[in-house]
Protein backbone atom coordinates (compact mmCIF):
# COMPACT_ATOMS: atom_id res chain seq x y z
CA UNK A 1 0.00 0.00 0.00
CA UNK A 2 2.76 2.24 0.78
CA UNK A 3 4.70 1.32 -2.25
CA UNK A 4 1.75 1.89 -4.47
CA UNK A 5 1.16 5.21 -2.91
CA UNK A 6 4.74 6.11 -3.22
CA UNK A 7 4.71 5.11 -6.88
CA UNK A 8 1.69 7.13 -7.53
CA UNK A 9 3.24 10.05 -5.86
CA UNK A 10 6.39 9.67 -7.93
CA UNK A 11 4.43 9.48 -11.12
CA UNK A 12 2.47 12.52 -10.19
CA UNK A 13 5.59 14.39 -9.31
CA UNK A 14 7.25 13.41 -12.57
CA UNK A 15 4.32 14.54 -14.55
CA UNK A 16 4.17 17.76 -12.60
CA UNK A 17 7.90 18.39 -12.94
CA UNK A 18 7.75 17.92 -16.69
CA UNK A 19 4.99 20.55 -16.99
CA UNK A 20 6.73 22.72 -14.53
CA UNK A 21 9.97 22.60 -16.41
CA UNK A 22 8.21 23.55 -19.56
CA UNK A 23 6.57 26.39 -17.87
CA UNK A 24 9.80 27.48 -16.32
CA UNK A 25 11.53 27.64 -19.67
CA UNK A 26 8.84 29.76 -21.08
CA UNK A 27 8.96 32.02 -18.04
CA UNK A 28 12.74 32.26 -18.27
CA UNK A 29 12.60 33.29 -21.89
CA UNK A 30 10.07 36.01 -21.16
CA UNK A 31 12.07 37.10 -18.21
CA UNK A 32 15.24 37.21 -20.29
CA UNK A 33 13.53 39.44 -22.77
CA UNK A 34 12.34 41.64 -20.03
CA UNK A 35 15.85 41.66 -18.61
CA UNK A 36 17.34 42.71 -21.85
CA UNK A 37 14.69 45.32 -22.34
CA UNK A 38 15.24 46.64 -18.87
CA UNK A 39 19.01 46.53 -19.28
CA UNK A 40 18.73 48.57 -22.47
CA UNK A 41 16.41 50.96 -20.75
CA UNK A 42 18.67 51.14 -17.71
CA UNK A 43 21.68 51.78 -19.99
CA UNK A 44 19.87 54.56 -21.78
CA UNK A 45 18.68 55.99 -18.50
CA UNK A 46 22.16 55.67 -17.06
CA UNK A 47 23.57 57.54 -20.02
CA UNK A 48 20.91 60.16 -19.68
CA UNK A 49 21.52 60.34 -15.92
CA UNK A 50 25.23 60.65 -16.43
CA UNK A 51 24.74 63.42 -18.95
CA UNK A 52 22.28 65.08 -16.65
CA UNK A 53 24.71 64.56 -13.76
CA UNK A 54 27.46 66.17 -15.78
CA UNK A 55 25.18 69.07 -16.56
CA UNK A 56 24.16 69.29 -12.91
CA UNK A 57 27.80 69.17 -11.86
CA UNK A 58 28.59 71.99 -14.22
CA UNK A 59 25.60 73.92 -12.95
CA UNK A 60 26.54 73.21 -9.34
CA UNK A 61 30.10 74.25 -10.08
CA UNK A 62 28.88 77.47 -11.63
CA UNK A 63 26.48 77.99 -8.74
CA UNK A 64 29.25 77.28 -6.26
CA UNK A 65 31.49 79.79 -7.90
CA UNK A 66 28.66 82.29 -7.89
CA UNK A 67 27.94 81.46 -4.26
CA UNK A 68 31.60 81.78 -3.36
CA UNK A 69 31.68 85.12 -5.09
CA UNK A 70 28.47 86.13 -3.36
CA UNK A 71 29.87 84.94 -0.03
CA UNK A 72 33.05 86.91 -0.64
CA UNK A 73 30.95 89.92 -1.58
CA UNK A 74 28.78 89.41 1.49
CA UNK A 75 31.85 89.02 3.68
CA UNK A 76 33.25 92.22 2.22
CA UNK A 77 29.88 93.89 2.65
CA UNK A 78 29.67 92.48 6.17
CA UNK A 79 33.05 93.99 6.97
CA UNK A 80 31.88 97.28 5.55
CA UNK A 81 28.66 96.99 7.51
CA UNK A 82 30.64 96.13 10.64
CA UNK A 83 32.72 99.23 10.15
CA UNK A 84 29.58 101.19 9.43
CA UNK A 85 27.94 99.67 12.52
CA UNK A 86 30.89 100.68 14.66
CA UNK A 87 30.67 104.19 13.24
CA UNK A 88 26.93 104.21 13.82
CA UNK A 89 27.38 102.90 17.36
CA UNK A 90 29.84 105.68 18.06
CA UNK A 91 27.41 108.11 16.48
CA UNK A 92 24.57 106.67 18.56
CA UNK A 93 26.67 107.06 21.70
CA UNK A 94 27.45 110.63 20.71
CA UNK A 95 23.77 111.24 19.99
CA UNK A 96 22.83 109.69 23.33
CA UNK A 97 25.30 111.99 25.07
CA UNK A 98 23.91 114.90 23.07
CA UNK A 99 20.40 113.73 23.94
CA UNK A 100 21.27 113.74 27.66
CA UNK A 101 22.79 117.19 27.30
CA UNK A 102 19.78 118.39 25.35
CA UNK A 103 17.48 116.82 27.95
CA UNK A 104 19.29 118.68 30.71
CA UNK A 105 19.17 121.86 28.64
CA UNK A 106 15.47 121.23 27.98
CA UNK A 107 14.76 120.79 31.70
CA UNK A 108 16.73 123.94 32.43
CA UNK A 109 14.83 125.81 29.71
CA UNK A 110 11.54 124.42 31.01
CA UNK A 111 12.39 125.55 34.55
CA UNK A 112 13.47 128.97 33.30
CA UNK A 113 10.37 129.28 31.10
CA UNK A 114 8.16 128.12 33.95
CA UNK A 115 9.76 130.61 36.31
CA UNK A 116 9.53 133.34 33.71
CA UNK A 117 5.92 132.44 32.97
CA UNK A 118 5.12 132.56 36.70
CA UNK A 119 6.96 135.87 36.98
CA UNK A 120 5.02 137.35 34.08
CA UNK A 121 1.75 135.90 35.38
CA UNK A 122 2.24 137.28 38.90
CA UNK A 123 3.33 140.70 37.62
CA UNK A 124 0.38 140.75 35.25
CA UNK A 125 -1.93 140.21 38.24
CA UNK A 126 -0.11 142.89 40.24
CA UNK A 127 -0.28 145.29 37.31
CA UNK A 128 -4.00 144.62 36.91
CA UNK A 129 -4.58 145.27 40.62
CA UNK A 130 -2.53 148.46 40.36
CA UNK A 131 -4.46 149.67 37.33
CA UNK A 132 -7.82 148.75 38.80
CA UNK A 133 -7.13 150.68 42.02
CA UNK A 134 -5.47 153.64 40.30
CA UNK A 135 -7.25 156.99 40.13
CA UNK A 136 -5.95 157.32 36.58
CA UNK A 137 -8.28 154.49 35.53
CA UNK A 138 -11.17 156.80 36.35
CA UNK A 139 -9.89 159.15 33.64
CA UNK A 140 -8.72 156.38 31.26
CA UNK A 141 -10.86 153.28 31.87
CA UNK A 142 -10.33 149.79 30.41
CA UNK A 143 -6.56 149.86 30.62
CA UNK A 144 -6.20 146.26 31.78
CA UNK A 145 -8.29 143.92 29.51
CA UNK A 146 -5.15 142.91 27.57
CA UNK A 147 -3.84 141.34 30.79
CA UNK A 148 -6.78 138.97 31.24
CA UNK A 149 -5.61 136.27 28.74
CA UNK A 150 -2.20 136.23 30.44
CA UNK A 151 -3.70 136.08 33.94
CA UNK A 152 -6.21 133.36 32.97
CA UNK A 153 -3.43 131.52 31.04
CA UNK A 154 -5.57 131.34 27.93
CA UNK A 155 -2.47 131.78 25.79
CA UNK A 156 1.26 132.15 26.22
CA UNK A 157 2.53 135.67 26.50
CA UNK A 158 4.56 137.27 23.77
CA UNK A 159 7.18 139.99 23.61
CA UNK A 160 4.49 142.41 22.44
CA UNK A 161 2.60 141.70 25.67
CA UNK A 162 5.72 142.37 27.73
CA UNK A 163 6.35 145.61 25.87
CA UNK A 164 2.74 146.70 26.43
CA UNK A 165 2.91 145.77 30.13
CA UNK A 166 6.15 147.73 30.52
CA UNK A 167 4.76 150.74 28.68
CA UNK A 168 1.54 150.67 30.74
CA UNK A 169 3.52 150.43 33.99
CA UNK A 170 5.76 153.36 33.06
CA UNK A 171 2.70 155.38 32.05
CA UNK A 172 1.16 154.62 35.43
CA UNK A 173 4.37 155.59 37.26
CA UNK A 174 4.57 158.85 35.35
CA UNK A 175 0.91 159.74 35.83
CA UNK A 176 1.02 158.83 39.54
CA UNK A 177 3.51 161.64 40.08
CA UNK A 178 1.56 164.29 38.20
CA UNK A 179 -1.15 166.76 39.13
CA UNK A 180 -3.82 166.55 36.47
CA UNK A 181 -6.78 168.90 35.93
CA UNK A 182 -9.43 167.96 33.40
CA UNK A 183 -13.15 167.64 32.75
CA UNK A 184 -14.66 164.24 33.42
CA UNK A 185 -17.78 162.35 34.53
CA UNK A 186 -18.50 161.75 38.21
CA UNK A 187 -21.42 160.55 40.32
CA UNK A 188 -22.46 163.38 42.63
CA UNK A 189 -23.66 163.09 46.23
CA UNK A 190 -27.25 162.59 45.03
CA UNK A 191 -26.25 159.68 42.78
CA UNK A 192 -26.58 161.59 39.51
CA UNK A 193 -24.12 161.51 36.64
CA UNK A 194 -22.49 164.91 36.32
CA UNK A 195 -19.58 166.44 34.44
CA UNK A 196 -17.16 168.24 36.71
CA UNK A 197 -13.69 169.64 36.84
CA UNK A 198 -11.50 166.87 38.26
CA UNK A 199 -8.15 167.46 39.93
CA UNK A 200 -6.09 164.35 40.64
CA UNK A 201 -3.06 164.57 42.94
CA UNK A 202 -1.14 161.58 41.65
CA UNK A 203 -2.82 158.41 42.86
CA UNK A 204 -3.58 159.76 46.32
CA UNK A 205 -6.90 161.55 46.05
CA UNK A 206 -9.12 163.48 43.70
CA UNK A 207 -10.96 166.78 43.99
CA UNK A 208 -14.04 167.79 42.04
CA UNK A 209 -15.70 171.11 41.31
CA UNK A 210 -19.30 171.27 40.10
CA UNK A 211 -19.99 174.50 38.27
CA UNK A 212 -23.16 176.32 37.38
CA UNK A 213 -24.03 177.35 33.84
CA UNK A 214 -22.43 180.72 34.47
CA UNK A 215 -19.14 179.08 35.44
CA UNK A 216 -19.41 179.72 39.20
CA UNK A 217 -18.32 176.98 41.60
CA UNK A 218 -21.47 175.28 42.85
CA UNK A 219 -19.90 172.54 44.97
CA UNK A 220 -16.38 171.44 45.79
CA UNK A 221 -15.26 168.30 47.56
CA UNK A 222 -13.26 165.11 47.49
CA UNK A 223 -13.65 162.18 45.13
CA UNK A 224 -13.61 158.46 45.86
CA UNK A 225 -12.70 155.94 43.18
CA UNK A 226 -14.60 152.67 42.75
CA UNK A 227 -12.39 149.92 41.33
CA UNK A 228 -15.44 147.83 40.38
CA UNK A 229 -17.16 150.37 38.16
CA UNK A 230 -13.96 152.38 37.48
CA UNK A 231 -15.76 155.64 38.16
CA UNK A 232 -15.40 158.62 40.46
CA UNK A 233 -17.92 159.17 43.26
CA UNK A 234 -18.30 162.39 45.21
CA UNK A 235 -17.64 161.95 48.92
CA UNK A 236 -21.00 161.94 50.66
CA UNK A 237 -19.71 164.34 53.32
CA UNK A 238 -18.48 167.73 52.21
CA UNK A 239 -15.23 169.13 53.63
CA UNK A 240 -15.19 171.92 56.19
CA UNK A 241 -15.44 175.53 55.04
CA UNK A 242 -11.74 176.15 55.73
CA UNK A 243 -10.72 173.08 53.76
CA UNK A 244 -13.10 173.95 50.91
CA UNK A 245 -11.60 177.44 50.71
CA UNK A 246 -8.13 175.92 50.59
CA UNK A 247 -9.17 173.56 47.79
CA UNK A 248 -10.77 176.38 45.84
CA UNK A 249 -7.67 178.54 46.32
CA UNK A 250 -5.44 175.71 45.09
CA UNK A 251 -7.60 175.22 42.00
CA UNK A 252 -7.55 178.93 41.25
CA UNK A 253 -3.80 179.16 41.82
CA UNK A 254 -4.01 181.30 44.95
CA UNK A 255 -2.81 178.51 47.27
CA UNK A 256 0.40 176.51 47.02
CA UNK A 257 -0.88 173.43 48.85
CA UNK A 258 -3.98 171.30 49.07
CA UNK A 259 -5.14 168.60 51.50
CA UNK A 260 -3.92 165.17 50.44
CA UNK A 261 -5.05 161.73 51.60
CA UNK A 262 -1.83 159.68 51.61
CA UNK A 263 -3.84 156.55 52.46
CA UNK A 264 -5.37 156.65 48.96
CA UNK A 265 -8.97 157.04 50.08
CA UNK A 266 -8.82 155.27 53.46
CA UNK A 267 -8.84 158.43 55.53
CA UNK A 268 -11.59 159.98 53.40
CA UNK A 269 -13.80 156.89 53.82
CA UNK A 270 -13.21 157.02 57.54
CA UNK A 271 -13.98 160.74 57.50
CA UNK A 272 -17.30 159.90 55.81
CA UNK A 273 -18.31 157.46 58.53
CA UNK A 274 -17.18 159.57 61.45
CA UNK A 275 -20.01 160.58 63.76
CA UNK A 276 -20.13 163.87 65.55
CA UNK A 277 -20.82 164.03 69.26
CA UNK A 278 -24.39 165.12 68.54
CA UNK A 279 -24.86 162.02 66.36
CA UNK A 280 -23.31 159.70 68.95
CA UNK A 281 -25.34 160.92 71.91
CA UNK A 282 -28.70 159.37 70.81
CA UNK A 283 -26.97 155.99 70.47
CA UNK A 284 -26.34 155.92 74.22
CA UNK A 285 -29.88 155.06 75.22
CA UNK A 286 -32.01 156.65 77.94
CA UNK A 287 -29.13 156.97 80.44
CA UNK A 288 -27.63 159.68 78.23
CA UNK A 289 -30.24 162.24 79.20
CA UNK A 290 -29.54 162.24 82.96
CA UNK A 291 -25.84 162.61 82.14
CA UNK A 292 -26.65 165.59 79.93
CA UNK A 293 -28.74 167.07 82.74
CA UNK A 294 -25.72 166.68 85.03
CA UNK A 295 -23.61 168.42 82.39
CA UNK A 296 -26.05 171.33 82.16
CA UNK A 297 -26.16 171.72 85.95
CA UNK A 298 -22.37 171.60 86.15
CA UNK A 299 -22.10 174.27 83.45
CA UNK A 300 -24.64 176.46 85.23
CA UNK A 301 -22.78 176.13 88.53
CA UNK A 302 -19.46 176.80 86.85
CA UNK A 303 -20.83 179.88 85.08
CA UNK A 304 -22.35 181.22 88.28
CA UNK A 305 -19.11 180.69 90.23
CA UNK A 306 -16.98 182.27 87.54
CA UNK A 307 -19.24 185.33 87.47
CA UNK A 308 -19.19 185.47 91.28
CA UNK A 309 -15.40 185.38 91.51
CA UNK A 310 -15.03 187.89 88.70
CA UNK A 311 -17.34 190.29 90.51
CA UNK A 312 -15.41 189.69 93.76
CA UNK A 313 -12.12 190.59 92.15
CA UNK A 314 -10.36 193.49 93.81
CA UNK A 315 -6.80 194.72 93.42
CA UNK A 316 -5.74 193.81 96.94
CA UNK A 317 -2.39 195.55 97.31
CA UNK A 318 -3.54 199.02 96.05
CA UNK A 319 -6.73 198.63 98.12
CA UNK A 320 -4.79 197.87 101.32
CA UNK A 321 -2.34 200.69 100.66
CA UNK A 322 -5.22 203.15 100.34
CA UNK A 323 -6.87 201.78 103.49
CA UNK A 324 -3.58 202.05 105.38
CA UNK A 325 -3.20 205.70 104.28
CA UNK A 326 -6.73 206.57 105.42
CA UNK A 327 -6.27 204.79 108.75
CA UNK A 328 -3.01 206.64 109.36
CA UNK A 329 -4.86 209.95 108.81
CA UNK A 330 -7.71 208.85 111.14
CA UNK A 331 -10.09 209.59 108.28
CA UNK A 332 -12.53 206.84 109.21
CA UNK A 333 -15.48 208.30 107.31
CA UNK A 334 -13.51 208.38 104.09
CA UNK A 335 -12.24 204.90 104.84
CA UNK A 336 -15.81 203.64 105.34
CA UNK A 337 -16.95 205.33 102.13
CA UNK A 338 -13.96 203.87 100.26
CA UNK A 339 -14.89 200.37 101.47
CA UNK A 340 -18.60 200.79 100.70
CA UNK A 341 -17.76 201.78 97.13
CA UNK A 342 -15.97 198.43 96.79
CA UNK A 343 -18.23 196.28 98.92
CA UNK A 344 -18.83 193.87 96.04
CA UNK A 345 -15.42 192.52 96.90
CA UNK A 346 -15.05 189.99 99.68
CA UNK A 347 -12.23 191.78 101.55
CA UNK A 348 -13.88 195.23 101.54
CA UNK A 349 -17.14 193.70 102.88
CA UNK A 350 -15.35 191.91 105.70
CA UNK A 351 -13.23 194.94 106.67
CA UNK A 352 -16.25 197.25 106.49
CA UNK A 353 -18.09 195.16 109.10
CA UNK A 354 -15.05 195.27 111.38
CA UNK A 355 -14.68 199.05 110.99
CA UNK A 356 -17.43 199.69 113.52
CA UNK A 357 -15.36 197.89 116.18
CA UNK A 358 -12.28 200.06 115.71
CA UNK A 359 -12.73 201.65 119.16
CA UNK A 360 -13.19 198.27 120.91
CA UNK A 361 -10.50 196.03 122.16
CA UNK A 362 -8.39 193.87 119.91
CA UNK A 363 -10.19 190.65 120.84
CA UNK A 364 -13.62 192.05 120.06
CA UNK A 365 -12.41 193.43 116.77
CA UNK A 366 -10.85 190.09 115.84
CA UNK A 367 -14.05 188.32 116.83
CA UNK A 368 -16.03 190.67 114.63
CA UNK A 369 -13.71 189.99 111.71
CA UNK A 370 -13.89 186.25 112.33
CA UNK A 371 -17.68 186.43 112.41
CA UNK A 372 -17.73 188.38 109.14
CA UNK A 373 -15.38 185.85 107.52
CA UNK A 374 -17.48 182.89 108.70
CA UNK A 375 -20.55 184.62 107.32
CA UNK A 376 -18.90 185.03 103.90
CA UNK A 377 -17.51 181.49 103.68
CA UNK A 378 -20.86 179.84 102.75
CA UNK A 379 -21.34 182.44 100.04
CA UNK A 380 -17.90 181.74 98.65
CA UNK A 381 -18.28 177.93 98.87
CA UNK A 382 -21.81 177.92 97.50
CA UNK A 383 -22.57 175.04 95.05
CA UNK A 384 -19.05 173.59 95.35
CA UNK A 385 -20.29 170.48 97.11
CA UNK A 386 -23.04 170.15 94.49
CA UNK A 387 -20.45 170.37 91.72
CA UNK A 388 -18.34 167.69 93.43
CA UNK A 389 -21.40 165.48 93.80
CA UNK A 390 -22.27 165.90 90.12
CA UNK A 391 -18.66 165.06 89.16
CA UNK A 392 -18.94 161.87 91.21
CA UNK A 393 -22.37 160.90 89.86
CA UNK A 394 -21.52 161.36 86.17
CA UNK A 395 -19.13 158.35 85.83
CA UNK A 396 -21.52 156.23 87.88
CA UNK A 397 -24.31 157.09 85.46
CA UNK A 398 -21.96 156.19 82.60
CA UNK A 399 -21.23 152.86 84.32
CA UNK A 400 -24.95 152.27 84.70
CA UNK A 401 -25.38 152.87 80.96
CA UNK A 402 -22.53 150.43 80.29
CA UNK A 403 -24.23 147.74 82.36
CA UNK A 404 -27.61 148.24 80.69
CA UNK A 405 -25.99 148.24 77.23
CA UNK A 406 -24.17 144.97 77.95
CA UNK A 407 -27.38 143.46 79.29
CA UNK A 408 -29.10 144.33 76.02
CA UNK A 409 -26.17 142.85 74.11
CA UNK A 410 -26.40 139.56 76.01
CA UNK A 411 -30.16 139.47 75.40
CA UNK A 412 -29.52 139.79 71.67
CA UNK A 413 -26.90 137.03 71.83
CA UNK A 414 -29.36 134.82 73.73
CA UNK A 415 -32.11 135.22 71.14
CA UNK A 416 -30.21 135.57 67.87
CA UNK A 417 -26.73 134.21 68.55
CA UNK A 418 -23.41 135.88 67.83
CA UNK A 419 -23.38 135.29 64.07
CA UNK A 420 -24.18 138.84 63.02
CA UNK A 421 -22.16 141.52 64.85
CA UNK A 422 -24.54 144.22 63.64
CA UNK A 423 -27.25 142.75 65.86
CA UNK A 424 -25.09 143.45 68.91
CA UNK A 425 -23.86 146.89 67.83
CA UNK A 426 -26.77 148.70 69.48
CA UNK A 427 -26.04 147.41 72.98
CA UNK A 428 -22.29 147.84 72.61
CA UNK A 429 -22.78 151.37 71.29
CA UNK A 430 -25.03 152.19 74.22
CA UNK A 431 -22.45 150.81 76.65
CA UNK A 432 -19.53 152.71 75.16
CA UNK A 433 -21.33 156.01 74.51
CA UNK A 434 -22.65 156.30 78.05
CA UNK A 435 -19.22 155.52 79.49
CA UNK A 436 -17.60 158.07 77.21
CA UNK A 437 -20.19 160.71 77.97
CA UNK A 438 -20.08 160.06 81.73
CA UNK A 439 -16.29 160.43 81.77
CA UNK A 440 -16.47 163.46 79.47
CA UNK A 441 -18.77 165.14 82.00
CA UNK A 442 -16.98 163.90 85.13
CA UNK A 443 -13.41 164.82 84.23
CA UNK A 444 -14.01 168.54 83.47
CA UNK A 445 -16.43 168.78 86.41
CA UNK A 446 -13.84 167.32 88.76
CA UNK A 447 -11.19 169.64 87.38
CA UNK A 448 -13.46 172.68 87.76
CA UNK A 449 -14.38 171.59 91.28
CA UNK A 450 -10.71 171.33 92.21
CA UNK A 451 -9.88 174.72 90.70
CA UNK A 452 -12.84 176.40 92.38
CA UNK A 453 -11.98 174.81 95.73
CA UNK A 454 -8.43 176.07 95.38
CA UNK A 455 -9.75 179.56 94.53
CA UNK A 456 -12.03 179.50 97.61
CA UNK A 457 -9.14 178.49 99.85
CA UNK A 458 -6.99 181.22 98.34
CA UNK A 459 -9.63 183.89 98.89
CA UNK A 460 -10.33 182.82 102.47
CA UNK A 461 -6.62 182.84 103.27
CA UNK A 462 -6.30 186.30 101.73
CA UNK A 463 -9.28 187.58 103.73
CA UNK A 464 -7.84 186.19 106.97
CA UNK A 465 -4.42 187.69 106.19
CA UNK A 466 -5.82 191.10 105.30
CA UNK A 467 -8.08 191.02 108.34
CA UNK A 468 -5.08 190.55 110.62
CA UNK A 469 -3.26 193.31 108.71
CA UNK A 470 -6.26 195.65 109.14
CA UNK A 471 -6.40 194.97 112.89
CA UNK A 472 -2.72 195.77 113.17
CA UNK A 473 -3.23 198.97 111.17
CA UNK A 474 -6.10 200.10 113.42
CA UNK A 475 -4.33 199.47 116.71
CA UNK A 476 -1.11 200.99 115.45
CA UNK A 477 -3.05 204.14 114.44
CA UNK A 478 -4.73 204.22 117.90
CA UNK A 479 -1.45 204.01 119.64
CA UNK A 480 -0.06 206.88 117.54
CA UNK A 481 -3.12 209.03 118.21
CA UNK A 482 -2.77 208.34 121.96
CA UNK A 483 0.83 209.59 121.82
CA UNK A 484 2.37 206.15 122.30
CA UNK A 485 4.01 205.17 118.98
CA UNK A 486 5.69 202.19 120.49
Question: What features would you highlight for this structure?
Answer:
alpha+beta; 8% strand; 14 helices; five-stranded antiparallel β-sheet; rod-shaped; 486 residues
Which value, in Å, is the CA radius of gyration? 67 Å
Quaternary structure: single chain
Distance N terminus to C terminus?
A: 235 Å
**Describe the biggest sheet?**
5 strands, antiparallel
**DSSP strand tally:** 5
Tell me the structural class. alpha+beta
Secondary structure elements and pairings:
Layout: H1 2-133, H2 136-139, H3 148-151, H4 159-176, E1 179-187, E2 193-201, E3 205-211, E4 217-226, E5 231-234, H5 241-252, H6 266-273, H7 277-280, H8 288-311, H9 316-328, H10 332-341, H11 346-355, H12 362-380, H13 384-416, H14 421-481
Mind explaining what this structure looks like?
This protein is of the alpha+beta class and 486 residues long. 72% of the residues lie in helices and 8% in strands. The protein contains 14 helices and five strands. The protein has helices at 2-133, 136-139, 148-151, 159-176, 241-252, 266-273, 277-280, 288-311, 316-328, 332-341, 346-355, 362-380, 384-416, 421-481; strands at 179-187, 193-201, 205-211, 217-226, 231-234. A five-stranded antiparallel beta sheet has the order 1-2-3-4-5. The mean pLDDT is 78.
Structure in a nutshell:
With 486 residues, the protein is an alpha+beta fold.
Amino acid sequence: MNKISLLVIVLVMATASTGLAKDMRQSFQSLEKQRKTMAQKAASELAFARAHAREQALTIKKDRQALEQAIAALKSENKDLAKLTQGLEKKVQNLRAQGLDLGKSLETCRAVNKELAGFVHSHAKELKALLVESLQSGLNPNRHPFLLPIINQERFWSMDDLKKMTQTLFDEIRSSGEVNLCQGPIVDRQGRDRTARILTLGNFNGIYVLETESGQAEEIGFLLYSDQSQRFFALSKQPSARMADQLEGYLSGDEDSAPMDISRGGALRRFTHELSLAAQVPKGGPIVWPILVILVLALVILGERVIFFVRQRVKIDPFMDQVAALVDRDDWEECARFMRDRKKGLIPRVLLKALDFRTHCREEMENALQEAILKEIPVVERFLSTLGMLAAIAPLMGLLGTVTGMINTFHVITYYGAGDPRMMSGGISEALVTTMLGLAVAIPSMLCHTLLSRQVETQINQVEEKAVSFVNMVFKARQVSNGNPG
